[in-house]
Amino acid sequence: MTRKASKDKLVLGIPKGSLQESTLDLFARAGYSIAVSSRSYSPAIDDEQIAVIVFRAQEMSRYVEDGVIDVGLTGYDWICENGSDVVEVAELVYAKQRLCPVRWVLAVLDESPVRRPKDLDGGIVATELVNVTRDYFAKKKINVKVEFSYGATEIKARLVDGIVEVTETGSSLSENQLREVDTVLVSSTRLIANKEAMKLRWKRQKIENLAILLKGAIAAREKVGLKMNVPRKALKGVTKLLPAEKSPTISSLVDPDWVALEVIVDERVERDLVPKLKRAGATGIITYPLNKVIP
What we know:
Layout: E1 10-16, H1 20-30, E2 34-35, E3 44-45, E4 50-56, H2 57-66, E5 71-75, H3 76-82, E6 87-92, E7 102-109, E8 124-127, H4 130-139, E9 145-148, H5 153-156, E10 162-167, H6 171-175, E11 178-187, E12 189-193, H7 201-220, E13 223-231, H8 235-241, E14 249-252, E15 258-266, H9 267-279, E16 283-289
Parallel strand pairs: 1-4, 1-5, 8-9, 8-10
Antiparallel strand pairs: 2-3, 5-12, 6-12, 7-10, 7-11, 13-15, 13-16, 14-15
């Protein structure tokens, strides 16, 4: 008999493994402190209405669909692989290294004669993403035997005709002398919920609140806040330097000849922008990190 989630608590699943640390950091930025013990699969969280369980991302969507947990974070790839019938509450674009989706790619050895997917007709492909890979070749009407790989798939490229493996940057493929042939699936992390849990008003609201805060934490990770004082005579020149889509907050100071200006900008432009602002007349420039940016 399948154990169902509690009616008194929102049971949250967080992914164990490669995404765990970045997920815990994301929740911390969203305002939730989760303490994980190496010996426990039930971390503590500073919210009495939430209970946390750690599952492998590969299993998460099945447990959410079955109602073992109410809400969880997993990749779109594993939702597709399991064919799970769940509510996709939000897309959360974050991964181990960068704020970007990951790709499952069809790859072969550098010296392989394979240039197109159809060149693998009659061959063997190894992957952990078996069902998605089978669907990929079936849609292209290519006869390929797809075998399950228990890990270290890059190494198996020397034993079979090709592999389908996940990559963020492509560096691991290059290090293993592998060449991309095609993209099989683009995936990002999703906040998913059980359909019955979403029918309970308090759980639905709690899940939606989680989505708002987590999305705000992601939006903030590549932005910084800027504060500065600006002489009114230099204000036009300073605001012209700001990104065109940004509308700064401008406040009057006790000295009528000065104003305080505050704006949020992308972190990647800050290092070039700050010296320009200084030369344009801004003083007392303060930069600060952000935890959440709620649209």
